[in-house]
Write a structure and sequence with these properties.
The protein is mainly β. The chain contains no helices and twelve strands. The strands form two sheets. The protein has a nine-stranded antiparallel sheet, with no helix packed on it. It has a three-stranded antiparallel sheet with strand order 1-4-5, with no helix packed on it. Strand 6 and strand 7 form a beta hairpin. The protein starts with a strand and ends in a 10-residue tail after the last strand.
């Protein structure tokens, strides 16, 4: 016997702070923190006409921290952490990940990799954690290029509180070959 009279479609930010930069040694650092105010829906009982409020999202704190180190041959290694928590509750959504690229001296071949671990606690004494990994070997220079890749997401991996993932519980292996023409031929560009 209840209907939703109103419910904000957007959260109201209390504060957002971003700090980023790069050192002389090629280390990039980024930090973002944002806090949103509590959001309430107004509920009306259609029989008694009484109104009440329902918390659709409590005061929430969001953090993103990233560090990336450039290394020789256009290579890099990075770490990232996203964290969403509701102070005063048991809610916590945390994902820690890494990415890397290791290329040889001519920058023709490279190994790329990434991985992440998610940990979510939505209600007391109920947690889930999962992982994601991806590794590929690629020819990245020249007209003919190729890639061999393997990607794994287990059935508990869930970065969706501060990220986006359509499906988990997947294993994907692929090979990609392509040939690119860089110079125009007659009237074909």
């Amino acid at each position: 016997n209840e209907i939703i009279e109103s419910n904000p479609s957007e959260l109201q930010l209390l504060n957002a702070t971003k700090i980023s930069g790069k050192t002389k040694r090629g280390t990039s650092v980024g930090f973002l923190n944002a806090m949103s105010l509590k959001s309430n829906a107004l509920i009306r009982d259609i029989i008694t006409d009484e109104e009440s409020e329902y918390i659709t999202q409590d005061f929430t704190n969001y953090n993103v921290t990233a560090v990336e180190q450039s290394i020789k041959n256009n290579s890099y290694f990075s770490l990232i952490n996203t964290n969403m928590m509701i102070p005063g509750t048991d809610f916590l959504a945390n994902v820690t990940g890494t990415q890397f690229k290791i290329a040889e001296k001519t920058n023709t071949y490279a190994v790329f990799g990434s991985g992440a671990y998610s940990y979510n606690q939505i209600i007391p004494d109920s947690t889930n954690s999962g992982f994601y990994s991806e590794i590929s070997f690629e020819k990245i220079k020249g007209n003919f290029k190729f890639e061999f890749e393997n990607e794994i997401k287990d059935d508990q991996y869930d970065p969706n509180y501060m990220g986006f993932l359509r499906n988990n519980n997947e294993i994907e292996t692929e090979a990609v070959f392509d040939y690119t023409f860089y110079n125009p031929s007659d009237k074909v560009l």
